[in-house]
């Protein structure tokens, strides 16, 4: 089972790029972030023609998450997180696919720091932690996937000193990341590549992609039930270099169908 995440940064403007990558990489399940489209404008028919059923939670101009599947119609289990009835951001959607609970998320950026956007980010992570605790009690394989907008360690940025005051790298957010891991979640990329610099995002400015001045923002967190099934992982970096690409690259993991 190949599961991928891709911050598409505007799905309708990049749907051709998305379909090209889907045809090449053939992931079984894909979590998308930053759809930047209202629900009625989501290109479901185009994706279905490419072989993928989809569910989505859109929002005009901002945010938005979706899950695509080659396994047929998707059993949605949740959209949005508990804990803030006034939160209107489309940042979380969840489904049960091929025996695995798939949580797709787009965590707030939080910049500028300090300020209300950063405080919202911290509150949102705490809400995610509360939901992650509930998921741990289901005795099912679970993976929480998406753009976390957190660089957990110095290895996850090309220049740590540049980001000391950036919400993506602030110790408050990284502390909450560690609290999430302590609940029993495993960072799949770091499980396989504990000491390598691996990036999933390159800014559009200052030739960041050409210089490989990247950040690792897109993560897969596996619960203990799913962790033994992790086989491999990678970043389809070349997709970032294509014309009119997102500033993120697709990231993927492969899971064994069953534990040997």
TrEMBL record:
Cofactor note: Probably binds two magnesium or manganese ions per subunit.
Signal peptide: none
Active site location: 106, 147, 248
Domain Endonuclease/exonuclease/phosphatase: 4-248
Magnesium as UniProt keyword: yes
Keyword Heme among record annotations: no
Cofactor: Mg(2+); Mn(2+)
Protein origin, superkingdom: Bacteria
Alphabetic keyword roster: Hydrolase, Magnesium, Manganese, Metal-binding
Any Pfam family: Exo_endo_phos
A single MF term (Gene Ontology): endonuclease activity
Site (Interaction with DNA substrate): 248
Binding site for Mg(2+): 7, 34, 147, 149, 247-248
Site (Transition state stabilizer): 149
GO biological process: DNA repair
PROSITE patterns: AP_NUCLEASE_F1_1, AP_NUCLEASE_F1_4
Site entry: Important for catalytic activity: 218
NCBIfam families: exoDNase_III (TIGR00195), xth (TIGR00633)
Entry's family note: Belongs to the DNA repair enzymes AP/ExoA family.
Designated name of the protein: Exodeoxyribonuclease III
Biological source species: Mucilaginibacter pedocola
